[in-house]
């Protein structure tokens, strides 16, 4: 097989280009030709979790999430019913979308609002049940 036939032309690059510059060039080229760049998922096992696989308004799922939340999340960080803990309250919060919530529970968070990752402790279904409960709390009025 003649490899030169399949190699892209790099004649538009300066003659002394480094590896980092080549990577930057390829990313720029990819973004300009496709309109956006798509990074590979950080964790291919969790890549399927792009859309809730269950009804987030299902009372049984909300209840399962509530029980799990009460056991593992409420006591130390988030408070009973998602209010009054060390972390921000969940009642009345409409800014937490389902996927963001799933990712935060699964992967955790660093920085000022540190949170441990729970992706190895809970299954995807269990995390989505937590998301269902947090979405439910977000629909509740702030007291």
From TrEMBL:
Entry keywords, A to Z: Heme, Iron, Metal-binding, Signal
Pfam families (UniProt xref): Cytochrome_CBB3
InterPro entries, alphabetized: Cyt_c-like_dom (IPR009056), Cyt_c-like_dom_sf (IPR036909), Cytochrome_c_Oxidase_Subunit (IPR050597)
Every Cytochrome c domain range: 60-138
GO molecular function, one term: electron transfer activity
Signal peptide from the UniProt entry: 1-39
PANTHER family assigned to the protein according to its UniProt record, in alphabetical order: CBB3-TYPE CYTOCHROME C OXIDASE SUBUNIT FIXP (PTHR33751)
Protein name stated in the entry: Cytochrome c
Organism: Denitromonas iodatirespirans
Species lineage: Bacteria, Pseudomonadati, Pseudomonadota, Betaproteobacteria, Rhodocyclales
